[in-house]
Amino acid sequence: MDLTVGPNQFFWKADAWAQLYETLAAEPVDRVVLGELVCSKRAPFYQARIPEAIETLLAAGKEVALTSLALVTLKRERKMTAELAEMGVAVEVNDLTALAHLPEGAPFWVGPLVNVYNEGTLAWLAARGARRVCLPPELTLDSVRVLTAAARDLGVAIEVWGHGRVPLAISGRCYHARLHGRTKDNCQFACEDDPDGLDVRTMDDQPFLAMNGVQTLSHTHASAAHQYGALVEAGVTALRLSPQTGDFAALCRAWRARIDGALDGAGLAAKLEAQAPGVRLSDGFLTGARGVDWSGGRPAA
Amino acid sequence: MEIVCPAGTPASLRAAVKAGAHTIYCGFADETNARNFPGLNFDRAEMRDGIAFAHARGAKVLVAINTFPRAGGEATWHAAIADAEAAGADAVILADLGLLDRAARHHPGLRRHLSVQAAAANADMINLYADTFGVKRVVLPRVLSVPEIAAINAETQVETEVFVFGGLCVMAEGRCSLSSYATGKSPNMNGVCSPASHVEYVEENGTLDARLGGYTIHRAARGEPAPYPTLCKGCFGAGEKTGHLFEDPVSLNAEQLIPQLEKAGVTALKIEGRQRSSSYVAQVVRNFRAAVDAVAAGRPLPAGMLARLSEGQAGTTGAYRKTWR
Hints:
Chain A is 33% helix and 21% strand. Chain A is α/β, with parallel strands linked by helices. Chain B has two domains: 238 residues, TIM Barrel, CATH 3.20.20.70; 60 residues, no CATH class. The chains are: A alpha/beta, B alpha/beta.
């Protein structure tokens, strides 16, 4: 099983952003997807650092891809998307706009924000040049099994969401800006103060979601710690870890230890929980009644 | 401009046609469409009869097959496409890449529209669907301003259809898992959002709480109305604030923007509400038909008569005005 680090979903200061990739070069992960997924207004703050990050990661033997934006509407966003293919590394398509700009037949990766729910879609993407597909996080383990079986015949590697706040929705509206009484065009980068997203609580003051500009995520960190064995058995070949603050390198090492057999599911879960006090884990999309649920290692009902 | 009207039942279809709808959209009574609610939608015979009724009166019928097929269960969706064609549908409304590919190969004579669930928000992506699958019309996601819609129309031959009235998704459609996170029921997979089966109203300590999946997302003082707890229109706290952080409990009413939408090159205006009653549908259709007829004749728009039909009594023009963002 490989470990893939997904694009940082949050708005980090450029130095913290660059530091993440410098650190990852020395960590036991196999590939890294970087670039801006959520909001095109963030990109100018760190895009000059991208070539160096790519170089560092490639020199360390990692596979590297650049993500597309999750939602492309503006002219400059279309341009930004078209230019991805010129950066010399693979493109991870997270909005089909990126596909429109790739030469026909050119290989690409598919990220978790493209709706790959079934064999027909998988086959179409494979024929178009998809080599890797990270499945949408809301898929059940049963669907993962069907899709990995289909992917084997198509020569496509299947990846599943392994750890991190789940991207649940993307909007034209910026909620961070709205919270501060601003509009998206005049956001003043309100999301910058929340490098893991801002807690959204219910009326009972229960943590529920996380706000991240135009994106809404789960408050829980989804974790496949307890489904690891089943995912290996299904033929999943990579797990995706989504960057968060704290010691993300330690989180990657803990997952590696799980893969190497040095940690069991409960041992890994304990390490993951220690990384983010006050944040629960969830695995309900894979095996529960609903996404937010946590099996705690108990078999699915 | 063409008015595209919802029909959750054969009665609504007939009411909409009689009220002047140019086009009706509806779906089969199963998980293949994004309004998979109990007691709603059409069985095969009803679809055939409904289409015949509409055609006899010069109206068209579009069949929405706009959820994403379940892995291992695609046959249900494939049958829906074949049955829509056999029933005489004027087009199918699809979102899934695999289904579009299937329809283009196996049903080349059946017109294909791209559902709002595909979230095609720019001309590059729309033209990709047109070139690859022969899509003739796209229902635009509710994230675009009127000038952006005009810019899209300048760059594509694909007809555009936009929502003008009814429920308003705040998130890009087809890309939202909020409901399945909290309830296990997903718009993409099950065709339902914030389902009634997971709603509870609890009266406690002088307040009325509206809960979804056990999460309290609205709290009203006794005697105040408690709205339906749709996730993105719920009340939450973040930072120092408490309130409707994503969207107020408003619904879309872009009636006053019809002249601008026409100038922007929009082909069709879509009304949301397959879950609504036939009398509601008829009333909305009559209003919009009068409005587009007025615009076509160069007359001023009739005064806004639809406000009281709106959910929560408040209307918004949503993303059509840029400040909404």
